[in-house]
């Protein structure tokens, strides 16, 4: 990487970080590190998002609220960027990572920079000076939302919410508040910059290019507006073309749905305490993005599975005799001259309880007992004959 490229990289604001760069920072810095490090200013700091917040001059009161967010690192970056004091640059972030002894994250960011994946390309006609975007050209059509103009690049969102005006209280006070506090980036039609030639074109670009999900708040007033019907059909067609689960319907009030939406599974909102907690958990899980490993990739962590076909010959073949413990039976021969050549000692393999296994003392006792029995039998016969004699 040349010196000019490194200088341009260092001056780039953090608002130009790509989604891949932010996901990398969040995955590595959100996890708490137990052991702190001593920074060059001789102050102990945490080696995670808390150390970044401390060196980015984010107050402890605000840092305490960051703990409630799922993406804590993303929240730190957003607060740092919104301050617009000129310090939220890539060079400052790399310096902070070195201070808190996170050279692993530092090197990963440089690797993304080498692959041109660290920063998003600026919008045509937009120049960034000191972290503040300035529009200089005529291509303002790429700046659709207020955040686009604030950060100077097109922003992407987890979801765009379509709802009827009668349901705005639920959307603004409950849904948007809860999801944004959890770190999700939500967008509604009120977030659009004024001055577009037609709002249909601007919203259509958001739905098809920059929003991962389209949340539909079903109620009896949902399909009254022709604009909502147009946006719903557009999002449905875009999901079919891209083969994505684009729509995320929420049934706020039981209602009869149009034929093209009746087959969608809906999250049902309930005011009961046991069901409402489950509702927000399911909504949060639906908005989260999980990248599954590709089994056909060469870098997959899954081991390849080799399936070997068993042929008919292998099935019909006799079983192997390697597992037998006994020796093979010698073949019979017409002559008996080869019997001495057999070196198999069957007596050592077969244990019997014959007389040869007895000790010499036991053999002697056995012989003595044999003669004693004979003598007793003869003696008994003589006694019987004596009894049979008449007086």
Automatic annotation (TrEMBL):
The regions listed as transmembrane in this protein's record are none
Q: Which InterPro entries match?
A: DEATH-like_dom_sf, Death_dom, Myelin_different_resp_MyD88, TIR_dom, Toll_tir_struct_dom_sf
Residue ranges annotated for the Death domain, each copy included: 48-113
Question: Which GO molecular function, any one, fits this protein according to its record?
Answer: Toll-like receptor binding
TIR domain: residues covered: 155-287
One GO location term (cellular component): plasma membrane
A Pfam match is TIR
Q: Which UniProt keywords apply?
A: Cytoplasm, Inflammatory response
Q: Which Gene3D superfamilies match?
A: Death Domain, Fas, Toll/interleukin-1 receptor homology (TIR) domain
User: What are the GO BP annotations of this UniProt entry?
Assistant: defense response to Gram-positive bacterium; innate immune response; MyD88-dependent toll-like receptor signaling pathway; positive regulation of canonical NF-kappaB signal transduction; Toll signaling pathway; toll-like receptor 4 signaling pathway
Highest taxon of source = Eukaryota
- Which SUPFAM superfamilies does its entry note? DEATH domain (SSF47986), Toll/Interleukin receptor TIR domain (SSF52200)
PROSITE patterns from the entry? Answer: DEATH_DOMAIN, TIR
Put simply, this protein is called Myeloid differentiation primary response protein MyD88
Identify the taxonomic lineage of the organism of origin: Eukaryota, Metazoa, Ecdysozoa, Arthropoda, Hexapoda
């Amino acid at each position: 990487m040349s010196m000019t490229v490194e200088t341009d990289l260092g001056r780039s604001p953090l608002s130009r970080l790509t989604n891949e760069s932010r996901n990398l920072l969040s995955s590595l810095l959100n996890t708490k590190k137990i052991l702190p490090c001593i920074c060059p200013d001789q102050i102990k700091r945490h080696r995670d998002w808390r150390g970044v917040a401390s060196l980015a001059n984010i107050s402890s009161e605000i840092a305490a609220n960051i703990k409630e967010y799922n993406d804590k690192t993303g929240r730190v970056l957003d607060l740092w960027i919104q301050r617009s004091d000129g310090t939220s640059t890539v060079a400052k972030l790399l310096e902070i990572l070195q201070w808190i002894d996170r050279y692993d994250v530092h090197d990963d960011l440089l690797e993304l920079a080498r692959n041109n994946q660290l920063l998003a390309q600026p919008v045509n006609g937009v120049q960034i000076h000191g972290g503040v975007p300035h529009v200089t050209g005529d291509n303002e059509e790429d700046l659709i939302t207020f955040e686009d103009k604030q950060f100077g690049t097109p922003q992407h969102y987890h979801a765009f919410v379509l709802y009827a005006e009668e349901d705005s209280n639920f959307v603004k006070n409950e849904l948007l508040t809860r999801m944004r506090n959890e770190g999700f980036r939500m967008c509604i039609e009120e977030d659009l910059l004024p001055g577009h030639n037609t709002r249909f074109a601007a919203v259509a670009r958001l739905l098809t290019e920059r929003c991962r999900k389209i949340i539909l708040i079903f109620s009896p007033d949902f399909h009254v507006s022709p604009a909502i019907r147009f946006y719903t059909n557009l999002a449905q067609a875009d999901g079919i073309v891209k083969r994505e689960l684009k729509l995320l319907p929420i049934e706020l009030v039981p209602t009869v749905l149009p034929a093209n939406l009746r087959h969608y599974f809906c999250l049902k909102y309930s005011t009961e305490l046991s069901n409402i907690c489950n509702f927000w958990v399911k909504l949060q899980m639906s908005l989260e993005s999980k990248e599954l490993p590709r089994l056909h990739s060469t870098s997959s962590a899954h081991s390849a599975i080799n399936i070997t076909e068993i042929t008919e010959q292998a099935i019909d073949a006799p079983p192997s005799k390697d597992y037998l413990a006994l020796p093979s039976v010698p073949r019979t021969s017409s002559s008996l001259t080869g019997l001495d050549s057999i070196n198999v000692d069957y007596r050592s393999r077969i244990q019997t309880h014959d007389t040869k296994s007895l000790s010499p003392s036991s053999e002697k006792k056995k012989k003595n007992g044999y003669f004693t029995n004979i003598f007793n039998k003869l003696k008994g016969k003589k006694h019987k004959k004596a009894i049979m004699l008449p007086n």
